[in-house]
Amino acid sequence: MMKQKDAVFAAYTAGINAGLEHGSKPLFDHVKTEIFHGITAGDISYNKARSNEKEVRNYAGSVTNNFFKKDERISGAKYVPQTKRGPIVKDERLIELSTNLKALKVHSPENMELIGRVQAAFDARKAEVAASKVSTKVKSEAETMESLAALGLL
């Protein structure tokens, strides 16, 4: 079974060899169609039901578009996302401490004592937030037993 990235590149190469122009809609449509047929035939890896043609066709378009942007062999350049992704901080105090810490490091790098205190407060708050997340993920004993009973394990 072929990986999706390799299948897109193979279909792209076949389209270019057939005379389709790089970056053109006919080339994109050719690759999308090849990916669609490969997924429905079971030649290309896909984790969902292959029988839903509309879903597979939409997915083939998304995969093609994704790898046209991200595959350096096709785009000719390293992909750089428009926005940086990372953990989203929702704790207002942690956000405020982080903002102040960054500002102090830029505007008052010589004031190491204050930077150290703010850094310590930031680290302590970060640990508090992490600890509260861990405790909220643990079910009570009664909830655990009820869940296991529902699964037929008790």
Structural features, described:
With about 150 residues, the protein is mainly α. The chain folds into two domains: about 5-75, no CATH class; about 90-150. Helices cover about 70% and strands about 0% of the residues. The protein is built from seven helices and no strands. α2 (about 25-40) packs across α3 (about 55-70).
Q: How many structural domains does the protein architecture include?
A: 2
Provide the helix percentage. 55-70%
Low-confidence stretches: none
The DSSP helix count reads: 7
Order of helices and strands: HHHHHHH
By helix and strand content, what is the structural category? mainly alpha
Q: Quick one: overall form?
A: flat
Proportion of β residues? Answer: under 5%
Radius of gyration: 26 Å
Q: How would a crystallographer describe the biggest sheet?
A: none
Short overview:
By secondary structure, the protein is mainly α. The chain has seven helices and no strands.
Relevant terms:
154 residues, mainly alpha, 2 domains
Topology:
Layout (H helix, E strand, L loop, with lengths): L3 H14 L7 H17 L11 H18 L1 H4 L16 H16 L4 H26 L3 H10 L4
Helix pairs in contact: 1-2, 1-3, 2-3, 5-6
